[in-house]
Every structure is written in structure tokens, then in C-alpha cells.
Amino acid sequence: MFLIFDPLYMLLAVLGYLIMFALASTVAPKLANRISGRFSLHVSMLLLAILILGISAATIYAILYLSGLYVSFYAILAFVLITNLLIYLISPYMINLSYGAKKSEDLQVLVNNVAYKMGMKPPKAVVVNSPPNAFAYGNILTGKYVAVSNSLMNMLSKDELEAVVGHEIGHHKHKDNMVMLLFGILPSVIFYLGYALIRSSFGDDRRGIQLAIAGIAAVLVSFVVQILVLAFSRLREYYADFEGTLVAGKEAMQSSLAKIHLFYHRYPQLSEQIAESKFRTLFIYALVNAAANPFTRYEIERLKNMKVSPLEEFLSTHPPLPKRLKFIDSIKIR
């Protein structure tokens, strides 16, 4: 049976998304503002990872304790793992095909130089056909790739391009693709466990209500964990910006992000390609929320002070541009 055609599945998904939107627009921004600036980037990632794993482990344990033999935990875990593993294995081939990835000797030389500065083995450099963007991808079968669109290569200076490549190699350095794949499994497992509990409650006259309540609670927790995973993803983007800044300097990293950002507001029809792309979580730039003007250094200062929508921020895998630019300012380069 395809779950998407199950009314219960659809109801739980809609309920969960409503809760997620409510949290992201109310509670989450207030909480983030209170703790913002109190912890370093590394400590913040560690605490958030512990929080995600702690909530997930406690929820899964509670579900298994309450459900007894009603829920096949290993079957659900196997289903989620296999699904994500297949995506992990085939996605590089899909990306190469979808974007017409081609090797570039010029880009490879630049990637080699940046990787050398970072003490990393150079990934394969490819040029893709798309609006300005860059991303890192790959797996154990295909190896590691850094992709830069041909339009972005024409838009950026050499220093700015090095900053972008440093950002992408930073994702490989921190193993972000694998880390986010593993963290992304947790809310899915909790959701399907909750769904299974609710389904099981229909056939149990004695514990039906208890199982249904526990199942609904699990579904809601899964969306809370999803918000935390999105927050963790945003921290990983800051971490990659940090690497790009160390390689090419603050000015190059900031101006590269600002140029990409302003481009998409000059051509809003192209920004829709980012919003609709299945691979948008990989892009160096995926959140658009400012008006376009000709690029100058003044624009970077203006963008730093731009207001950010809390809802848009907390439902995105990427930090908003003003916060990324301010974060780069805070980096201490030795």
C-alpha cells in the first residue's frame, strides 16, 4: 500500500506540518534569540546534536515500551534506512544527468589549489548547467565532487570563486552529506513509528486510546525533531562558510554570497528553480529574501541589516544571508 494514498497518513502529515509552522513562527525564534551568541559554533553544533539524539532516543524508547509487540521497530528502521541508502547511492548519478555535469581542467586546477590549502585530497571538479550556484556531493561509489555552475564561474572573480569552492570542500571536510543523511533518518523513523502505533490502535479494544495518543504524540515529536535537524543543517552551512573564509578571506566570501543573492532577485523566475529543486539542500545558496540592486560593497552592509523572516529561516536548511554575512565578520583569521 502506498502511504500517500492513506487518509490517516495524509492527516498526520498535515497536522505535523501545521505544528511545525506554528513552532517555527512563534516558539523557535524566541528561543533562538535567547541563546544566540552564548555558544561558539562548535559548541552549538554539539549541544544541538545531543538534543536531537536525546529526544529521538527517548521517543523511540517510549514508543517501544508502550507498544510492546504492536510495532515492528526493525521493519520501520529497515524501510527508512534502505530508502535513504538508495537515495544516497543514486543521487550523484541523478545530479550528473540532471545538470549535465562535465569535467573542467581550469576548475580542477582551482579546486586542487584550494584543497591543498585546506589539507584535503582534491574532489573531482565539474561544471554544471544551471543558474548561479555551487554544491558538494558524491558517495563511496562515485567519489567526491564539487560542482560549480558555468554562470557562477562567469560571475565571480578568482578570489570569490576560491571562497565558494572552499565552502564546498568544507562540506566534504566535515562529512556534511553523510551527517545530515543520518540525522535526517531520525524524524522519519519517529514519524513512521507514531503512524504504526495509531494504525495498531484500531484493532485493540483494550489499549486503543492509549496507543492512539502515544502515536499522535510521536508524530508531533517527529516534526519538532525535524525543526532541530533544519537548525543543525544551518549550523553546518556556517561551518562551511568558515572554511571558505579561511581560504579566500572575508571580503571574497561575503561578496560571492551577496552577488549570488542579488542575482536571483534581479531574475526571480530563476529563483523558482532553486525552490523547486530536489537538490536545493546541497546548494551554497538556497534562501532568497531581499530586493535587488546593482552590486557594490555598500550592498553587503545593507544586506547585513536586512530584516529576516523567522518562519522562513526556521523552515530552511540554510541560514539567511544577513546572518551569514555577520557571521563571516566575526571570524578571526590568523
Q: Strand order of the main beta sheet, please?
A: 1-2-4-3
Q: Determine the fraction of residues in helical runs and give it as a percent range.
A: 55-70%
Tally of extended strands? 4
Q: Low-confidence parts lasting 5 or more residues at pLDDT below 50?
A: 288-295
Main beta sheet: 4 strands, mixed
Number of domains: 1
Specify the number of helices.
Answer: 14
**Rg calc:** 21 Å
Distance between the termini: 58 Å
Structural class assignment: mainly alpha
Shape: globular
Q: Overall mean pLDDT score?
A: 84
**SSE sequence, one letter per element:** HHHHEHEEEHHHHHHHHH
Q: What percent of residues are in strands?
A: 5-15%
Description:
This protein has one domain (3-330). It is built from 14 helices and four strands. The chain has helices at residues 7-25, 27-35, 41-67, 73-99, 105-117, 150-155, 158-173, 176-201, 208-248, 250-266, 268-276, 297-304, 310-314, 321-330, and strands at residues 102-103, 124-128, 134-139, 143-149. Helix 3 packs antiparallel against helix 9 (208-248), helix 5 (105-117) packs across helix 7 and helix 7 packs across helix 10 (250-266).
